[in-house]
Design brief:
149 residues; mainly alpha
């Protein structure tokens, strides 16, 4: 993976990136639970649904078949970003959150800058997409689906 990053990262940074990528499954599971939960606000459900559909889209920013594990960095970033937005904006009552959910949010916040360092242009595009989706605008999101990024 380090070779695919053109030597831009140290071994410690590489470890952090891998740890961030491994946040994808639990964060995605959390988004799915928000989407299915009747008590989740509609805005959070919509954002969860869009992000879940992104994961199953064959077009994304970094193709896994070309970049291996590193190809999941964009997927992890969009899922973790949406998860944190939902946590912060729609589900503020931390007393109702599970310990695992709180730990995931804390770890995600601690690691969020790692992909921004390595793929700044892509994370900036993803941030704009998530912000647009939160405003109810889906044109940027549709563009990813239609053009591949």
């Amino acid at each position: 993976m380090k070779g695919r990053l053109n030597g831009k990262v140290t071994d410690d940074q590489l470890g952090t990136l891998k740890e961030f990528i491994f946040l994808l499954p639990p964060a995605l599971k959390q988004l799915e639970s928000y989407w299915r939960d009747k008590s989740t606000p509609v805005e959070a459900k919509k954002l969860s649904g869009y992000i879940i559909s992104y994961i199953y889209n064959p077009h994304n920013f970094i193709p896994e078949d070309k970049f291996g594990l590193f190809g999941y960095l964009d997927d992890s970033y969009i899922v973790v970003s949406a998860f944190l937005h939902i946590e912060d904006l729609y589900l503020r009552d931390w007393h109702k959150k599970s310990r695992a959910e709180l730990e995931l949010a804390n770890r995600a916040r601690a690691l969020m800058n790692a992909p921004r360092f390595v793929i700044p242009e892509i994370t900036e595009k993803i941030d704009k997409i998530v912000d647009s989706l939160m405003k109810g605008e889906i044109s940027g999101f549709e563009e990813v689906f239609n053009n591949g990024n």
